[in-house]
Amino acid sequence: MNSVPSDMDTQLLRSKMAALEQLLDGYEMTTVEQTDKLYKEIAERKAAEQELGKYRIHLEELVKERTGELLEANEKLQKTISELTRAEERLKKYSEECIRSNQELEKFAYIASHDLKSPVLSLAASLKLLERRTRGKLDKESLELINDAHASAARMQNLITDLLTYARIGADNLKKTQERIDLTEMLNLILTTLKTECEQSKCTIIADKLPEIIADHTQMMQLFQNLLSNAIKFHGAEPPRIEILAEQGKKEWLFSIKDNGIGIPFEHRERIFELFQRASAGHSYKGTGIGLAICKKIVEQHGGRIWVESEPGKGSAFHFTILSDH
After folding, report:
1. What distance, in Å, lies between the first and last C-alpha atoms of the chain?
2. Which residues are registered as beta bridge partners of 109?
């Protein structure tokens, strides 16, 4: 026999049903919220993937563009390298041709000067003989003509001698002629050679302690003697006073020869180192105009450079460098 639920049981059942419905409503609400959140996340992820896709495409385009630019730049670089290589080859060939041409010119100058020397000597000797044979027989004007011709022959002889000296510089292999030189001893020898000139001009020469260098002895003698001779020759009203200085640098020696002579105009400072150019423009001094060109060639043969600082009436300072041996 079935029993009838009591009111208490019914109330309890209803309470449980209400709690279950509340629980289901909460679950349903939570599920909806989570579903909405999930859909939102999915939508955001799809949007992010789309943006990422766009960025990837853009990045690929940039990489492609930059790769093209790099390839183009590399082609231009290779072309430039190729052009530079060809230019370097042409420059090397031109340099070799210049060296060969200079050697041929030096050889020609040497041969021409040497061949000219004999007839000039013969001419001078003939003029001297003519003067002796006609002494007392010619008038004053004729004797002056003979003397002028003899003086011209002497100047030509000096010119040829200087040209031979200029042509010889660089004609030999400098490495074979280099040796250790005590410049102090060399200077003493030069001063002995210039003793008469110094006494006649009452010249005073002051020199630093000069170093030992590796160089061609003959060429160094010519260099110092030419510069000292010029300093003595081109003096002013006061007796010449010459100062020789030496200063060691990192890779070279700097030498200076200073005087109190007539000086050199500014516009002549470069041209005086060229052949047949005179440092004594406007003055009647003897010379062939080759001495300073010889100095320049000697200095350049030894890897140096030469220049002058001067002011008319206030003396000159010739500076030159010679590579040191260490």
Report:
1. 132
2. none
Instruction: At 43, list the tokens.
Output: 């939508």
C-alpha distance from residue 24 to each of 14, 27, 187 (Å): 15, 5, 121
Which two three-digit tokens encode residue 106? 């030096």
Instruction: Report the alpha-carbon distance of residue 140 to residue 63 in Å, rounded.
Output: 100
Q: Which of 182, 256, 252 is CA-nearest to residue 212?
A: 182
Cβ neighbours around 38 below 10 Å, total = 10
pLDDT tens for each residue of the chain, 326 residues long: 555 567 777 777 777 777 777 777 766 677 767 777 878 888 888 888 888 888 888 888 888 888 888 888 888 989 889 888 888 888 888 877 777 766 666 676 667 666 766 777 777 788 778 777 877 777 778 878 877 787 777 777 776 776 677 777 765 556 667 889 999 999 999 999 899 889 999 999 999 889 999 998 888 988 999 999 999 988 888 999 999 999 998 889 999 999 999 988 888 878 888 866 665 444 555 556 788 888 999 999 888 999 999 888 889 999 999 987 64
